[in-house]
């Protein structure tokens, strides 16, 4: 692993050097008579089609030509140059091998281009798009040992569909095809297009699969085109079943028996332990309702399969239930392979048995994880996690996870009196693959809904300041409508924070010390006060970022309602001095929501634009005057506004530098607005660069007043002037993609600082690149894993 990473870091230097030297001509490496192929151009001639059609046809044809020329960057060919200058390696490894065969590209010569073949591609593709009388030719242009091929196409008129017929007969399968024709992709007046015809055959095949025709195939459909019966470049289409379609493909099948092997292993099959198909006489002892579960060792409760399987005895086969069943079996999380077979059991009545062969994952696992981290608040540290997982805890595919962990963050430069942080804790979670509730919950999703029960404890020590005990428990549900939409409802989410020790140094900051010039800061006291937070939370997530389209979005909305019903029933009113306790601890009452919206635009395979807007508000009322510190918002840092260190920005125009350095990193607010935009580009396979702009801030709902009646964070309250209090930063980034992780380095600087005087918040005129103190205070390096959003 060390050798591999060393090679990749050295490759960064190599790429930079090649960008300079590859301007040298690659043609000097060619042998006598060789010509470097620089690409092809397609010219579309004729007045029979529009400019828009010509442009589209030209682009599509050029994409289909082979081979592709050597890649270029800003007119240079660094990969070809790398191949040419690298020596032939003696072994299939090492830097020289990587440079020549991994990064480098073998020269593409004119001799590698089959021009007649490409000409045929142009003609065939044009005819497939309805240009039936297309003609093409080519010319080769060469100069200075470089060659380009120019293809000229005369497409003629594009044929349009004049009529679409679906041939009829009295068979059952034809009746179903007739029922599908209303949604045909073949429309009168549209151009003839072979791609659309293929899609129409697939559409019919999918429709028939939903009606029980399991053995049918799209190739059994033929679409005949007749251009002789119509004039003016028109074509008639006739959709029908091929005469040689197998009889089996024309039959509608129903489910006979459903048989499950939940402990399937291919080695056991070879040894004869499993028989497919099974002897029907031996099935009866494995019956569970309408299904048979072959599990002699009773490793799994049969009812989990009854919930996951959508096929029942006597059902007409359909592909939707077929795929739904497979996806639900996989989403149980306990099986690594799911194999499905349909075997004809009654050919006369067109029935088959459905077999599900399930290979379990490792039921129990123990994993030790270690990680290191750093952030822009001058902290670095590490974490150790020991995780135990049981994937079939009560034999019903319940997943039980237990972990213990320890973490530390050490001050690494910056403020001298910043404090180290130590965290030690344990957490457990039981995830049940169904909704456990007094009501019935039916889901036709491909994803099994889950009931999650969690319990955790954490001991946190901020050296020289305080130590806290943090207890949390939750009960809730997670379910997905489909691959894009997910719901996470915690019916109850409880957090209990109890301080163990509070040092005199920290109390001095809370209460103030006039002799030392330290004003009271009750905000810090809310960090270590006893807290009881309970209530429901709901999160909705929508994303289509895995789709191949150019524009994709991600949205996450969260609603957190703490102590609302209890506050209403008890009549709590903290502002009037009527604060209620539970077990001697005042409970928190607030409403909080947050929206995270992201938009991604893909320019091409190597460049994209990512943007994000986050807006949130947390409003305290009833039993609380303030939102608990742990539930407030923060900005700054490697995944937020990168020109400002983590948790050092805001609220509003408040200047956090007025605080002691130990507490500089504790700024929190009740309102949050953040906007980010990032342009991303791939330079080589593993090397990506970015340019970004971040803006945003946090604000308070209510001013915080100390014992002397002073506002502890002046300028922090949200007002109509909030837009003038937005911080702005920009920078550039480098991302190293090592397959198993992405190492991100972002260098950012502030452009607008909200705690400067109103007319002096834009800092461009303050930039002094030669001033080392300015660079130290304003150039922020963020090192992180993965993308910020």
From TrEMBL:
Domain of life: Bacteria
Broad class of the protein's primary localization: membrane
InterPro entries: Bac_surfAg_D15, D15-like
Annotated transmembrane regions: none
Keywords tagged on the record: Cell outer membrane, Membrane, Signal, Transmembrane
Keyword Signal found: yes
Subcellular location: Membrane
Ranges of residues in domain Bacterial surface antigen (D15): 588-759
PANTHER family to which the protein is assigned, alphabetical: SORTING AND ASSEMBLY MACHINERY SAMM50 PROTEIN FAMILY MEMBER, TRANSLOCATION AND ASSEMBLY MODULE SUBUNIT TAMA
Protein name: Membrane protein
Originating organism: Epilithonimonas arachidiradicis
């Amino acid at each position: 692993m060390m050798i591999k990473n060393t090679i990749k870091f050295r490759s960064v230097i190599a790429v930079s050097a090649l960008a300079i030297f590859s301007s040298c001509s690659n043609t000097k490496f060619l042998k006598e008579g060789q010509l470097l192929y620089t690409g092809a151009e397609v010219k579309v001639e004729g007045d029979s089609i529009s400019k828009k059609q010509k442009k589209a046809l030209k682009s599509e044809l050029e994409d289909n030509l082979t081979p592709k020329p050597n890649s270029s960057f800003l007119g240079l060919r660094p990969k070809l140059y790398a191949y040419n200058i690298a020596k032939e390696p003696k072994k299939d490894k090492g830097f020289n091998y990587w440079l020549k065969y991994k990064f480098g590209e073998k020269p593409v010569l004119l001799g590698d281009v089959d021009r007649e073949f490409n000409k045929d591609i142009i003609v065939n593709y044009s005819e497939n798009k309805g240009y039936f009388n297309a003609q093409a030719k080519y010319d080769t242009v060469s100069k200075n040992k470089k060659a380009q091929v120019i293809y000229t196409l005369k497409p003629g008129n594009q044929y349009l569909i004049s009529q679409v017929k679906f041939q009829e007969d009295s068979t059952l399968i034809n009746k179903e095809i007739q029922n599908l024709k209303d949604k045909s992709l073949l429309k009168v007046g549209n151009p003839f297009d072979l791609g659309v015809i293929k899609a129409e055959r697939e559409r019919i095949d999918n429709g028939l699969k939903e009606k029980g025709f399991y053995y049918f195939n799209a190739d059994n459909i033929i679409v005949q085109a007749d251009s002789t019966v119509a004039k003016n470049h028109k074509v008639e289409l006739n959709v029908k079943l091929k005469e040689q379609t197998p009889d089996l493909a024309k039959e509608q099948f129903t489910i006979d028996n459903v048989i499950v092997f939940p402990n399937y292993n291919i080695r056991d099959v070879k040894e004869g332990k499993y028989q497919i198909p099974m002897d029907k006489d031996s099935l009866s002892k494995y019956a569970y309702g309408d299904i048979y579960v072959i599990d002699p060792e009773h490793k799994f409760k049969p009812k989990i399969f009854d919930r996951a399987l959508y096929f029942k005895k006597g059902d007409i086969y359909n592909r939707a239930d077929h795929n739904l069943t497979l996806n639900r079996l996989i989403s149980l999380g306990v099986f690594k392979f799911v194999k499905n077979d349909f075997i004809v059991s009654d050919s006369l009545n067109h029935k088959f048995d459905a077999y599900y062969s399930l290979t379990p994952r490792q039921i129990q696992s123990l994993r030790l994880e270690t990680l290191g981290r750093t952030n822009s608040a001058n902290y670095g540290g590490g974490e150790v996690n020991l995780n135990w997982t049981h994937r079939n805890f009560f034999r019903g595919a319940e997943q039980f996870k237990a972990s213990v962990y320890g973490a530390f963050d050490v001050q690494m430069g910056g403020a001298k009196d910043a404090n180290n942080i130590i965290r030690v804790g344990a957490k457990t979670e039981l995830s049940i693959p169904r909704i456990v509730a007094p009501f019935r919950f039916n889901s036709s999703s491909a994803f099994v809904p889950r009931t999650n029960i969690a319990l955790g404890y954490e001991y946190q020590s901020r050296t020289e300041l305080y130590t806290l005990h943090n207890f949390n428990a939750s009960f809730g549900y997670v379910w997905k409508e489909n691959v894009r939409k997910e719901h996470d409802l915690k019916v109850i989410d409880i957090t209990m924070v109890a301080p163990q020790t509070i040092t005199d140094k920290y109390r001095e900051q809370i209460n103030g010390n006039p002799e030392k010039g330290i004003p009271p800061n009750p905000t810090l006291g809310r960090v270590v006060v006893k807290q009881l937070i309970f209530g429901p939370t709901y999160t909705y997530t929508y994303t289509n970022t895995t789709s191949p389209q150019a524009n994709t979005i991600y949205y996450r909305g969260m609603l957190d309602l703490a102590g609302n019903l209890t506050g209403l029933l008890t009549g709590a009113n903290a502002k009037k001095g009527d604060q209620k306790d539970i077990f001697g601890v005042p409970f928190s009452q607030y409403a909080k929501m947050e929206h995270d919206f992201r938009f991604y635009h893909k320019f091409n395979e190597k460049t994209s634009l990512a943007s994000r807007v986050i807006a949130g508000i947390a409003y305290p009322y009833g039993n609380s005057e303030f939102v608990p510190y742990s539930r407030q918002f923060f900005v700054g840092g490697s995944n937020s506004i990168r020109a400002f260190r983590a948790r050092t920005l805001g609220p509003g125009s408040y200047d956090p530098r007025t605080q002691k350095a130990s507490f500089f990193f504790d700024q929190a607010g009740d309102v949050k607005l953040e906007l980010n935009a990032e342009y991303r580009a791939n330079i080589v396979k593993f090397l990506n660069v970015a340019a970004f702009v971040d803006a945003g801030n946090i604000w308070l709902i209510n001013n915080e007043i100390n014992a002397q009646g002073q506002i502890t964070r002046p300028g922090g309250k949200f007002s109509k002037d909030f837009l003038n209090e937005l911080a702005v930063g920009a920078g550039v980034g480098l991302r190293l993609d090592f397959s198993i992780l992405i190492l991100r380095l972002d260098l950012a600087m502030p452009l607008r600082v909200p705690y400067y005087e109103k007319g002096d918040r834009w800092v461009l005129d303050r930039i002094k690149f030669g001033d080392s103190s300015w660079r130290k205070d304003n150039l922020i390096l963020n090192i992180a894993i993965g993308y910020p959003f």
